[in-house]
Amino acid sequence: MNASIQDVARRAGVSASTVSRSFSHPGLVSQKTRIKVMKVAETLDFQISRSARALKSGQSLRIALLISGLVTEWFNSNMFLGLNTVFQQQGYDISIYTISTFEDRKAFFTNLPVRRNADAVVVCSFNINAAEVSRLRHMHVPVVGVNISDLDGFDAAVTIDDRGSMETAVRHLVSIGHRRTAFIRTTHGTPFTYAADKRMEGFLEACKEAGTKVTPIVLHCPLKPNPINSAVSQLLALNPAPTALCFQTDDLAVPVLYRLRQYGRTVPGDFSVIGFDDSTYAEAIGLTTLHQDPVGMGERVAEKMLDLIDHDHTEKPFETFSTQLMLRETTAPLAA
């Protein structure tokens, strides 16, 4: 016969509700009590019923995560790690919805509100429109954004200042003598407005702020068939060539950097290069880049969502994480 929650409570000398909280909301129980409950539960081979908890609370214990790219992409995977670190401890599962086409987007915002099988929705990196907000509102669950540029319709969000961050990069390049700088971005051809689009705006604004002696160049590289080939071919065709390059992401900067070296261009001799993200290999290869913290952003988003789920309120619903320019080997003063 399986042990009951009452058996665990009697053996541990606590109430049944404390046992339940030790499994479902461990943050509400002292560490000493939680350890004691877990040891007793293990001894008695007790496992709390997830379905019973869901039935009792009226919750699905599921979070819907909307991403527009692959979950294996650097930002998405690290943000998911942060989310899961918090949600797993609280007994929640995360369902990932990859939305990369207009059909995917329409299907999600039509079907999820009907199914009502999520306790909250996380939207990562792209903006939702008024009609989509309205559909989600019918679910009466929190809608929280991470890395979004438009806060309208969201109950909470954690973001960075994409525009201001890129302005910082350009000002650094200007300060070390660069006057002809290119911004290189990927174009997706999808029905989305991305937070990263603000980086180009920041680049152009900082160039304008620097005065007429600074010449900005913007290179648009279609995601398909290959943005790397497009970036390299466009760069090598420029005459006169830029002396500095700002990339929308490290994912674009790193392979282009190596391809340029294959064509006899030196970094930072011919080009100073700045990426954006400070992703996995940026430090190892000496890439100057703008650092952001997707794991921390994911954790903070999860904490805000739990507040909204449990209390319909969170202390600081909208928060901006800082970025930092990491100066490494791919930038140098312009040679006289």
Summarize the structure.
The chain has 336 residues and is of the alpha/beta class.
Order of strands across the main sheet: 2-1-3-4-5-11
How are helices and strands ordered from N to C?
HHHHEHEHEHEEHEHEHEHEEHEE
CATH class of the largest domain: Alpha Beta
Radius of gyration from CA coordinates: 24 Å
General shape: elongated
The fourth-level CATH homologous superfamily of the largest domain is: Response regulator
- The average pLDDT score comes to 88
- Point out poorly predicted stretches: 50-57
What is the level-2 CATH architecture name of the largest domain?
3-Layer(aba) Sandwich
Residues in helices, as a percent range: 40-55%
* Number of helices, counting only DSSP H or I runs of 4 residues or more: 12
Kindly give the count of domains.
3
| Beta-strand residue fraction | 15-25%
Question: How would you classify the helix and strand content by structural class?
Answer: alpha/beta
Would you count the extended β strands for me? 12
